[in-house]
């Protein structure tokens, strides 16, 4: 059955209680979230405000709102909802369902698991910038962002919007790889998110408008996934200006997970603490080249980095 079809089960969708502002008015349990995510259209209800005196029933309002949605958007959101894992749903236990609905809408737009390189330009211009490496513990994983491998001036053949959207999908793909790798290793229940090590580069080109917009989009992606820690290594003088723009985008909980290290040696020590003794950060094997997102591909891609 497609996500667009209805069935007797679909008619019994639990109605999310909402106030007059259009927001859900209470936290969701894991059980209700699982029902919502597995039922077509349950998480894609249009978030319009309505009058409490409206004579329409909740079901009628819902059907009217869904009928007004673009069919392609509706299908994309349903498909994204059906792919949510229990691990993802657990993040939203106790939160308003609107937050999960927003995450589903984001997934439907970005489609991180659909990325394919090297043919997916301009995303391919970032290839090698991000790498995923197994950590010592099954519930840990490291994601390495090497600013010296990122060349935003190679984006000049495309529009800024195209480049920023492609970079967002590229980053989100690697977050998905991290989660899948941890699940494959049996550490999903204890997963707190990846430890991200960012090696900063002292290059004026990284202050180009497209690079700054990509950096903001990177922060936006990070809001969609759990994060254990972010380590920024070797901040150059130019980074101070960029940080003034990034800092207001971080909530206090995320900011508390950010750590600065002055030099590459300290970064290598932090990296080896996470993944075990071996190659320093700068020589670590490149992470997965995006393609169909499957456990087999991930295992093959990180094998060299885990030895």
How many β-strand runs?
A: 5
- Shape field: globular
Give the uncertain stretches in residue-range form. 1-25, 285-296, 301-307
Q: Whole-number average pLDDT? A: 74
Count of alpha/pi helices = 12
Biggest beta sheet attributes = 5 strands, mixed
Q: Per DSSP, what share of the residues sits in E-state strands of 2 or more residues?
A: 5-15%
Rg, alpha carbons: 21 Å
What's the arrangement of strands in the largest beta sheet? 1-2-3-4-5
Fold topology:
Layout (H helix, E strand, L loop, with lengths): L7 H4 L18 H9 L19 H10 L3 H12 L3 H5 L6 H14 L19 E5 L6 E6 L13 H25 L10 E5 L9 H14 L6 E5 L5 H8 L5 H4 L2 E4 L2 H12 L19 H12 L1
Parallel strand pairs: 2-3, 3-4, 4-5
Antiparallel strand pairs: 1-2
Structure description:
The structure is a single chain. The chain is an alpha/beta fold and about 300 residues long. It is about 40% helix and about 10% strand. The chain has a five-stranded mixed beta sheet, with helices on both faces. Helix 7 links the parallel strand 2 and strand 3. Helix 7 packs parallel to helix 8. The longest helix is centred in the middle third of the chain and has 25 residues. The protein is globular and about 65 Å long. The N terminus and C terminus are likely disordered.
Brief account:
With 307 residues, the chain is α/β, with parallel strands linked by helices. The chain is 42% helix and 8% strand.
Which structural traits does this protein have?
alpha/beta; 12 helices; 307 residues
């Amino acid at each position: 059955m497609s996500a667009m079809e209805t069935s007797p089960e679909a008619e019994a969708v639990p109605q999310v209680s909402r106030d007059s502002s259009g927001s859900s008015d209470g936290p969701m349990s894991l059980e209700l979230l699982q029902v919502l995510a597995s039922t077509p259209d349950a998480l894609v209800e249009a978030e319009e405000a309505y009058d409490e005196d409206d004579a329409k029933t909740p079901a009628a309002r819902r059907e009217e709102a869904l009928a007004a949605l673009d069919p392609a958007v509706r299908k994309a959101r349903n498909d994204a909802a059906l792919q949510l894992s229990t691990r993802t749903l657990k993040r939203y236990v106790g939160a308003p369902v609107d937050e999960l609905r927003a995450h589903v809408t984001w997934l439907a737009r970005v489609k991180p698991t659909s990325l394919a390189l090297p043919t997916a330009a301009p995303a391919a211009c970032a290839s090698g910038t991000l790498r995923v490496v197994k950590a010592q513990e099954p519930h840990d994983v490291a994601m390495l962002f090497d600013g010296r491998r990122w060349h935003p001036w190679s984006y000049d053949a495309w529009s800024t919007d195209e480049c920023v959207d492609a970079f967002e999908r590229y980053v989100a793909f690697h977050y998905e790889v991290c989660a899948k790798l941890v699940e494959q290793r049996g550490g999903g229940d204890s997963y707190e998110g990846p430890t991200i090590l960012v090696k900063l580069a002292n290059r004026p080109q990284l202050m180009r408008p497209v690079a700054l917009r990509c950096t903001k989009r990177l922060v936006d992606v990070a809001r969609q996934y759990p994060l254990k820690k972010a380590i920024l290594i070797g901040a150059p003088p130019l980074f101070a200006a960029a940080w003034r723009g990034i800092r207001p985008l971080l909530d206090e909980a995320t900011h508390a997970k950010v750590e600065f290290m002055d030099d590459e040696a300290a970064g290598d020590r932090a990296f080896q603490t996470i993944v075990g003794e071996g190659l320093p950060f700068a020589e670590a094997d490149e992470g997965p080249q995006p393609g169909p997102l499957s456990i087999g591909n991930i295992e093959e891609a990180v094998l060299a980095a885990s030895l």
